[in-house]
Model the fold of this input.
Amino acid sequence: MSYKTILYDTADGVTTITLNRPEQMNSLNDEIVAELYEAMWQADADPETRVIVLTGAGRAFCAGGDISGFGGQTPKELLTKLPRLFDMNKRPDYQTRHTYFPRLRKPVIGMLNGATAGLGMVYALCCDIRFAAENTVFTTAFARRGLSAEYGMAWMLPLVVGHANALELLLSGRKFHAPEAKKLGLVNRVFPADKLVEETYTYAKEMAVWCSPRSMRTLKEQVYEVPFQSLAEAVRMANQDMLVSNLCADFKEGTASFKEKRTPNFPGEDD
Done:
């Protein structure tokens, strides 16, 4: 599939999806939102893809929503607009317009190469792992635009940085840099700008080779179910997953490759 507002590339088990509106600092309009959605599910369905990297072209990851790109629409139309893949058998929480990344079976690494603001921060929070260039600037932005926290940020941000830190970042709308984001737990690692790509792909390729696709899928599902579970429910789910995992081909290959001291060759997403 060809795209106009994103770049899509797969190599060494890693698919890179790049927001590609550099002149607009990769701000989001209807077209790029729809193309990103399609590309994410394309990568998720691709057996050659083990890990997804999301980044931005130019000097920004994503500067937020492009107000001009949503022109002529009422707030109600924006709230109800899709794309989304709605499955009545799956949790609805991760089937909204922007916050569908937890439903992807494959891990998503956010490679935050520059300004990450507003809706751009929502997408960063939806990534499973976040690496940032040390000069990356963050802001929730909403309070300084007369807006509420949009698309679930008020739910996600406290889970990542804690209640008090989330309120401070939301209410002030202030800018902060990657080293502070690391201290807050918003990003996992910070690298010099000229090392971000190298370090991110070293990490992603190691995951693609050494980690079972089925295990990563199951682990991701377990973690994203936690906000809705009691401890007893989490343990019960883990016990069920353990019984199935012990019978799967990836477990057999993981055990065999460990004993034989060789690189694993995981078959992938079997049950």
Observations:
- The mean pLDDT is 89.
- The first strand starts at residue 6 and ends at 11.
